[in-house]
Design a protein that fits this description.
The structure holds two protein chains of two kinds. Chain A contains 15 helices and eleven strands. Classes of the chains: A alpha/beta, B alpha+beta.
């Protein structure tokens, strides 16, 4: 058992598709919340194999994409200080801020390092005691425990020069905001398997209990996605609404309580600004007061006023109100080589995925 | 960004584990997955094991899918 190849079996996939065709009668919109799910649907050609009346909508589940210009501009401003070394996941390097990007700043000679793990920023802090090492902390609940652990380790070791520019987001409040906005009709959710690995099922129970929407916590291989669609279609056709777990080899009902407790030790819920979705109560992660000395927002910098690129539809694409091909910039001035918006930068961004797989139909 | 990969734990020292992923050994923290043992599979994300994989559940899912696909 390698936990990958077994879930890519072609014959089983074909059988599952037949089952979906047999069961599915109603036209429905299913939102895949997670960008990695969007990529998997395209990569394995599943979108084209499903009944035409099942429409898949890409949701706001790309941390890079939902990080607003304000946060990127602040990271850029911090990197311009002589005493700062900025550490970031590689995905953030090319995301355009209002007038620059971290990649451009690095080319100008700023001290910006790409890290694989938040723990690398702790190492950088130890290796560079004369610098303020700022970690640009982006990610959802999948990543937040790793950031929390790094913060707690640094604090317990008495590291004085590591700071966190917290831009992490919590997924459940964003889904609530999407449903409350009623801008887009969603009949069911394919929930992010790795966010739920940490959180478990309960934080998403409101989808079925309050909003009467079926939801399935899904893995990322082709059979996972097909089973999730089949489970959702069954619920829709029977007028049922519950939150089910398809990804049972990884996701437990209660999630990972140790990881959740680390997040709770380090962070408290706060309002956060999402690109496209605006300010969402309880969707952010602020450092607990005990760690406020490690908050990068305490470092004084002048930040330029945020500016959005006119015409860029990333905000609406993240809400599934529009699709990438509907954006006038898509494939014209916005291209993976010169992205205008973040959804064309991230390998999980809807625009990049549509571009890569040459999908031109909405 | 939430991409995570499964790997097999081959060695544990304190709160760090050596995990084999596609023939490559990676060192990961098991701080949030403390009860993992050598020989088990874990899901790795940004240098951390975030959950153990459950082989029994995986086999049950595959059996269900096979039945579903062929009935």
């Amino acid at each position: 058992m390698k936990f990958i190849d077994e879930f890519r079996n072609k014959e089983i996939a074909q059988g599952l598709i037949r089952r979906i065709f047999e069961v599915s009668a109603r036209p429905i919109h299913l939102m895949e919340v997670c960008g990695t799910h969007t990529v998997s649907f395209f990569r394995y050609g599943i979108r084209d194999m499903l009944p035409k009346h099942i429409r898949l909508l890409s949701g706001p589940g790309c941390p890079v994409c939902v990080t607003p210009n304000q946060n990127i501009d602040l990271a850029i401003a911090l990197s311009r200080r002589d005493d700062v070394l900025l550490a970031t996941f590689g995905d953030m390097m090319r995301v355009p801020g209002s007038t620059s990007s971290l990649q451009k700043e690095k080319a100008e000679g700023r001290r910006i390092r790409i890290v694989y793990s938040p723990l690398d920023s702790l190492r950088l802090a130890k290796e560079n005691p004369e610098k303020k090492v700022v970690f640009l902390a982006v990610g959802f609940e999948t990543t937040s425990p790793a950031i929390a652990m790094t913060l707690l380790k640094a604090h317990s070791e008495g590291i004085q020069n590591l700071y966190f520019l917290n831009s992490q987001k919590r997924v459940p409040p964003a889904l609530r905001a999407l449903l409350q906005s009623e801008k887009v009709q969603i009949h069911g959710f394919i929930l992010p398997g790795h966010v739920c690995t940490i959180l478990g099922r309960e934080p998403f129970a409101f989808l079925s209990e309050e909003f009467k929407r079926p939801a399935v916590i899904a893995g990322f291989e082709p059979l996972d996605l097909l089973q999730a669609v089949w489970m959702l279609v069954n619920q829709v056709e029977k007028d049922q609404a519950s939150v089910e777990i398809q990804y049972t080899r990884v996701v437990r009902d209660q999630g990972n309580p140790v990881a959740v407790s680390k997040m709770e030790q380090a962070f408290q819920q706060d309002e956060a600004l999402w690109r496209g979705l605006g300010w969402i109560p309880g969707s952010g992660c602020r450092l607990k007061d005990a760690f406020s000395s490690m908050d990068a927002r305490r470092i004084e910098v002048d930040v330029e006023p945020p500016r959005e690129h006119p015409g860029c539809l990333c905000g609406e694409i993240l809400q599934a109100v529009r699709t990438p091909p509907e954006c006038p910039l898509f494939k014209t001035v916005c291209h993976p080589d010169h992205p205008v918006g973040p959804c064309m930068v991230s390998v999980e961004g809807a625009c990049f995925t549509y571009f890569k797989y040459e999908q031109t139909q909405s | 960004m939430c991409l995570s990969v499964p790997g097999k734990v081959v060695e544990i020292q304190n709160n760090m584990a050596k995990v084999e992923v596609g023939g490559v050994i990676r060192e990961v923290s098991i701080d949030v997955c403390p009860d993992v043992t050598v020989g088990e599979y874990v899901l790795i994300h940004t240098g951390f094991a975030i959950q153990k994989l459950d082989e029994k559940e995986a086999l049950e899912t595959l059996a269900l899918l096979r039945e579903l696909a062929t009935f």
